[in-house]
Amino acid sequence: MIGSARRRLLIALLFLLPSLVGFLVFTAGPIAFSLAMSVTDWALTKHNPLSDTPIRFVGFENFLRILVGDESHLFWDYFGNTLFLMIGIPIGIAGSLGLALLLSARVTPTTRQGRTMGALWGVALTAISCAGVWASTTPGGATTLAGAAAPAARSTEAGLTDLTAHEVQRSRSRGAVLATAALGVIVTLGLAFGTVFFRTIFYLPSLLAGVALFLLWKTLYKPRGGLINAALGPVLDGVQAAVGATPPALWYAMGLLVWGAGLALCARVVLVGASKLRFGDAGLASFLGRLGLVAALGATVLGAGFVLVQLPARSLLPSGFAPVSRGDALDAAREVASSVPGADAEELRLAASALGDQSRVRDLIAALTGAAGASPESAGVVRRAVMNRASRVREGLTSGEGLAAPEWLVDSSWAKTALIVMGVWAGLGGSTMLLYLAGLSNIPPELYEASAIDGASGWNRFIHVTWPQLAPTTFFIVIMATIGGLQGGFEQAMVMTQGKADTIVLAYYIYNIAFTDQFQLGLASAIAWVMFAMIFAMTVLNFRLGSQLTNE
Amino acid sequence: MSDPATRSRRSFSVPRALGFAALVVLGATFTAPFLWQVLISLSSLTDVDLLTRTGFPPVLKPENYPQVFRKVEFARYFFNSFFVAGWVTLLQVITSAMAAYAFSRIRWPMRDRVFLLYLATLMIPGVVLMVPNFAIVLGLGMFNTYWGLIVPAAFSAYGTFLLRQFMLTIPTSLDEAAAIDGAGHWRVFTQVVLPLARPGLIVLAIFTFLGNYNSFFWPLILTKDDNLRVLPIGLLAFDSTYGRETPLIMAGSLMAMVPPVLVFVVLQKYLVKGIQLGAVKG
């Protein structure tokens, strides 16, 4: 070591000086300052150089106001929102682990020759499929575009009447070619650069997470004209058609089946956990872990079963089971009378009105077929007439109800889910995945070899080798994610919903109190310290549970 | 004749193909929104709501990009972001490296206690510091200035911690040799330790730059004037004024995404190493 003790101290202080000044003024000082502020009623609008009002010491009044007093309903509401948004954390961690496992499975070519060949194949495949898509989406292929003048006829499709039919056609063709080309580029680069390429594009969203990315997602989430609902539309239509074509009893049965299976699974997890329950922290921690699993599983199963049971009622379709009003039944009878030769109009009318309001399409068809004289041809005519009527009925109904895509960021029952989906998407390939990749590469290969000799299957290998070996990584990730989750959510809400639709989180609350209308710095500091206490408690809990589980 | 090693190198198998297909599908999921963003940014305002039906803008409008610069002070926002993030990065790396040197290379009384104090503050969430720091910056007269954006971020307990851990891995025999040659601490620091700590410095620089480039809360509460706005705040204001003009918003946000992507692609090696060393802020 150079120099005497005193000289060393002097030199060390000189090296430390810039950092130490910053540390005292912007970290250590503010912590003390903030604690002091939290027991005052300091608000910039009341106490400033212009007004002479002295700042009052209010003791624990701020804390009481937040936790049990007049601010408490807001505080606990926003705390609930924050916790709700944290549902994304376990989903994200599981997904990141999945991505890391997939990336480390070496599914891309590993040799230089394999990569080169793969790249060449990729380029060829991309070129061929782009050409194919272009040729099949452009009527007449190259000749129409090159030679003939573009037809000026307006498009007849609803909503697209401002464009010529040719323009619509051309745009669709270009869109299809572009999508094919993009997919081809991913395949080609994936074959050529392997894991590094995929890791890079998986990481991009988390790198860009910020206002720019949130603005993009705000556009994607637009109820009309947004990409997400445009993609969801056909899916929902398919579900609706499937539900309409089958009797409701089937969906009720499936719902019950899911509930039953879920109940059995939950019971099994609890019973196995109980049978392993020993005294002491380790046993309790593992049992609590199982309870958490049961809660997650139970919620999922409950929700899935509920969706299944609700489907028939929500998809109002012209199936045999959809309801028809008395007016529609009479209209259908009139239609049948005019199109079935020799049918008695009065008898048809009576048959239709004998059915009450909200009778089923199937019963209406049966009644009208009977009244029309039950020949095979007339049955077909009746069915068509009733279905026509019923589909017109459906158009009226589905515009208001039925399986409509959600109004993501506007509807307060969907906005938080929308934020979770975006958060999971953005974080899936981020630092969590990279940490898992590092963790996976640190698992000694001998462990896998040993388990292979024991004849362990893929799943068993994961449960008995991979997962326990990754426990320290998971532990670190859970702690960091919990801390981040309790503090987070402000930027997304600010950019995408402006706090509307029930998306205000604790950080947003602090922002509102401290920096918008009244600049109540004292109250805001108190909220920040309550938040700190919560973060601290959660971290301690994580540490206790985590260290017990990783030692087990 | 086919031992396990050669069998596993077989170039094609069904599980591998399925795995590759899964990677491609996931890759498409992560890139599709950005591709869509490009299409919107090139679309005209009248066509943008029909884009999901046509799949491609009927008329391409690259003019949207220069239009963004005409509607708002976008170039200014860009400059501000680079100016602030650049200064913060430079200052933070310098102050952290110097402090890390004092914590790892010089023996002085109370050293470990002071360092423990640094560590302890890492546990305090940023939100707790936001309110008092706002009051302090206000008191120092730095509200609504570049100073207020740069100075509080010019030092970092976290950066000091990161670089200290890094410097501890550099063997002390090197600086002892330099000391025997008559080098003082400053020369040992600049000529021995800093060059060897380069990967650590780069990791800290990347994280600091990206973090500050994206920083939102602090500039939001601290700046009022339009000509002090950094990109995130400028984009937010742009959206609240011209939010209906989706193509312009998408063009602006796409441009804002370019610098981090460039940084990442060029310095990817360091970034990934850094994250995997645990150099990630909560």
Major sheet details of chain A:
2 strands, antiparallel
Count of individual helical segments of chain A: 23
Order of helices and strands of chain B: HHHHHHHHHHHHHHH
Question: Helical amount among residues of chain B, as a percent range?
Answer: over 70%
What is the second-level CATH architecture of the largest domain in chain A? Orthogonal Bundle
Helix and strand content put the structural class of chain B at mainly alpha
Any idea how many domains of chain A? 3
Strand order of the largest sheet of chain A: 1-2
CATH superfamily of the largest domain in chain B: MetI-like
Derived structural class of chain A:
mainly alpha
The Rg value of chain B, from CA coordinates, equals 25 Å
How would you describe what is shown here?
The complex is a heterodimer of chains A (552) and B (282). Chain A has three domains: 38-108 and 408-552, MetI-like (MetI-like fold), CATH 1.10.3720; 112-228; 323-398, no CATH class. Chain A contains 23 helices and two strands. Chain A has helices at residues 5-37, 61-67, 72-85, 88-103, 112-137, 142-146, 165-193, 195-208, 211-220, 227-244, 248-276, 281-314, 326-339, 345-354, 361-372, 376-398, 415-427, 431-441, 445-453, 458-487, 490-496, 506-515, 521-551; strands at residues 323-324, 359-360. Chain A has a two-stranded antiparallel sheet. In chain A, helix 15 packs antiparallel against helix 16 (376-398). Chain A is extended and about 120 Å long. Chain A starts with a helix and ends with a helix. The model of chain A is unreliable at 142-150 and 394-401 (pLDDT under 50). With 282 residues, chain B is mainly α. In chain B, 72% of the residues lie in helices and 0% in strands. Chain B is built from 15 helices and no strands. Chain B has helices spanning 4-8, 14-41, 51-54, 64-71, 74-104, 111-121, 126-139, 146-150, 157-168, 173-180, 185-196, 198-213, 217-222, 231-242, 246-276. Chains A and B meet through helix 1, helix 4, helix 7, helix 8 and helix 9 of A and helix 2, helix 3, helix 5, helix 6 and helix 7 of B.
